[in-house]
Amino acid sequence: MSLPERVEILIVGAGPTGLACALSLDTHGCTDIVVVDAYEHGEDSSRAIAVHAATLEALYTVGCADALIEVGIQEPTFRLWDGSRLHTVADFTSLTEYTKYPFVLIIPQYVTERILGEKVREKGVRVVRPKRVVGLKINEHDTNMTDVLFESGEVIQARYVIGADGARSTVRQATGIKFSDPNGEIPSSEVDSSNGTVTQAILADVMFTEPLPSELARMLFILSGDSPFLFIPLPPEAYDEQGTVYRIGGGIPAAMGAPPPSPPISYLQELVDLSGPGAVKLSGDSTKLTISKTLWSTRFRTHSAIADTFFTRLGWTQGGQYYSGGAVLLIGDAAHIHSPAGGQGMNLGIRDAISLGAALATHRSVTEPVVAPSEYRRLDMPLKEWADHRRQQGLTVIALTKRMLSFAMARPATTWYLGVIPVNWCMLRNFVLGIATSFSATRRAAAWRLSGLGNR
Questions:
Q1: From which residue to which does the signal peptide run (predicted)?
Q2: Which of 247, 278, 301 is the last residue of a domain?
Q3: 156 pairs with which residues across the strands?
């Protein structure tokens, strides 16, 4: 499919965030939309697998929630094993008075993307692949438009450019928007359990040779050794396999060094034995799990960053005259990234995208017909308010994921204070966790935060 010369709204990135944005815009009456992506095909791996209540509510408004629920697994609780005791940290069933989705939905990202893509095609929105954006500039004949430059040499004129093109966003870089940790932290190359950070981690989808204990038939977060470990059964829709596929993941202890790009079975097995179910006792016995097959694996660095703004124009002031340039907006990983703790990333991006539909439709209504460029500073308020609100939500989620990771990385060794007071932070954490999770109000509060219902 060829690119048009001119379009009102260009979305760069056809992942779940970009597709959700296209659906929201269409729902709000914006029909002149083109979505482009640098790759011929979308992701074929599971990657993000959790869809929370607030995200399902947003997806319901664009007609996709029911289709996702039909193929996903509804997980009612978030459970944690501290090495000796099983805790229910978050009880999503306690949210029934606040949402019709009192659960976290386990569904692979590529299935989410497929369902959103089918709805986009049903709506008649154009998705063009592979088309790689390499730059932006103000159109020399119409300062209300942006020229979007492609690697192929093609150019599209767009009134609105939406960057949904990931953490290395070309759209963001072309605007010169800074992207950094809100606390000024610089990621290191190792796991440092002394200060509660994990910067090297892996995710993988695997199968095991042995039948698993009943405790592993549902999502479980394991705290053992000096690194947290995640274990989640995936729905049958994830892979065409005879048997259950499991998502495993965890931080890499410093002693193991940096993981290889696509960790093989031997590396994953070592991690399972060291920090996963193989390192703890479930049902009273040591649980030895042997990986029989790896379907997908990846390594990544865990760090946080957020764009200085989610909305700008490629404008400048010259001779007292303000030249606006087209509007440029950022959503999803192009706007914010953080650790995968709590499964917040894709959820926040999708909610960015769907909320943008209403804001952009409002902006169109106050700037139609097209007004003088000097008026845009006043009339851009709907987009600026959207951007400020979404950025605050991003900061809130970054803070939440940092707290979760710091909690999981309590130091296992005893520290002596003043030379006479021994404190084992791991044991103290587990003690406090046991008391806190014994109260239903605590479990409900944790579910509220993770669900996104208080951060929409």
A1: none
A2: 301
A3: 148
Residue 218 sits in the same domain as residue 287? yes
For residues 324 and 262, state if they share a domain: no
Last-in-domain residue among 281, 301, 321: 301
Q: Say whether both 274 and 394 belong to one domain.
A: no
In the chain, count of helices (H) and strands (E)? 11, 27
- Looking at the fold, whether 120 and 227 belong to one and the same domain comes out as no
Inside any domain, residue 225: yes
First CA to last CA distance, the chain: 36
Same domain as 308, residue 297: no
Q: Which residue has the tokens 């944005």?
A: 21
Tens digits of pLDDT across the chain (456 residues): 789 999 999 999 999 999 999 999 999 999 999 999 999 876 655 688 999 999 999 999 999 999 999 999 999 999 988 877 889 999 999 999 999 999 999 999 999 999 999 999 999 999 999 999 999 999 988 888 999 999 999 999 999 999 999 999 999 999 999 999 998 876 544 434 444 455 688 999 999 988 777 777 888 888 865 678 899 999 988 888 888 999 999 888 777 788 999 999 999 998 888 887 766 666 555 667 899 999 999 988 878 999 999 999 987 655 555 556 789 999 999 999 998 888 899 999 999 999 999 999 999 988 776 666 667 778 889 999 999 999 999 999 999 998 887 777 666 556 666 666 666 667 778 888 889 999 999 999 999 999 999 888
Cis bond before residue 235 (omega within 30° of 0)? no
Give the total number of structural domains in the chain. Answer: 2
- CA–centroid distance for 130 within its chain: 23
**Residue 155 domain boundaries:** 6-72+107-185+304-405
From the list 406, 423, 405, the residue with the least C-alpha distance to 414 is: 423
Do 38 and 165 touch, CB atoms closer than 8 A?
A: yes
Answer yes or no: are the C-beta atoms of 46 and 107 closer than 8 Å.
no
155-163 and 179-180: which strand pairing?
unpaired
Q: Quote the longest CA-to-CA distance of the chain.
A: 78
Q: State both tokens at 18.
A: 């970009």
Give the E-state strand segments of 332-379 in sequence order: 336-337
